[in-house]
What does this fold into?
Amino acid sequence: MRAWWLNTDDTQARTELREAPVPEPGPRQLLVRVRAAGLNRGEFIIGGLTKAGTAKPLGIEGAGEVVKAGAQATRFAAGARVMGRFAGAMADYALANEADAMPVPPGLSWEEAGALPTTYLVAHDMLVLQGGLQAGGWLLVTGVSSGVGVAALQIAKALGARVIGTSGSRDKLARLQAMGLDVAVCSRAPDFHAQVMDATGGAGVNLVVNNVGGTVFAECVRCLAFEGRLATVGYVDGVLKSEIDLQALHARRLVLFGVSQKLTSPAQKAEGVRRFCEEMLPLVAPGPLRPWVDRVFSFDDLPAARARMEANAHVGKIVITGGT
It folds into this structure.
């Protein structure tokens, strides 16, 4: 089978198309014929999901048909349509831990299913499992046009919350306002505090999703309401450090948290999937959580898809269709 790999040194992450044997599923695994896989910026950031000086199969999420199930995997039969966080999903075939697999809802295309798992599981973790966002509450999303940003917007609106989003593109913000974005802030700089306070009547927001990184971290803290929470999910600006206002942290009883799955146990991952399937999956197509696919690229065109992502030209998710 064909499989995309990522090779890194201290400064670069290069993609390589390789030939590899079709893997054999373990006792609690599924062999999935990949139909579509979502592209994720985090994989290409050295020091984030990827270590310098390593080589690994590319792809962390996908959707496809079950070809074969391990001896102890009983939830999905051959031919079942599944999606989930599948390591090495940028390939003709991938192995999936049965506990991480979810059924593809009826009416959802392969491209939409391949775009859903990572961003929506992460957004559910940020907004619900850790963020405690409630109906009527305020959410601020920096870099709201990203895949995670769009997923967070959709879930927040489904919860009945109000959303402020930042982006450097007025066109992207206008498109997201049509999806329910309440307040659009056109900026890539840490200068949105005044607009956030104006929108919230001076109270601040209950939750911030920081997709951008260290350059806006302090401004995000300034925007938090009493007992507000700040989720760090990305650092596309490459800035990994920032000052923290300890007085604000102390006096306003703030909570700062991250949402990486890098160090979570298999049991923790499985519980997150279970909660998502119970609480959010019923809201997926034809409901309010239909993934927004920016553009679909063929399997061979992965370098072009990466270029579009790194040029920040997209709104929502970029998807690669399966190779077979």
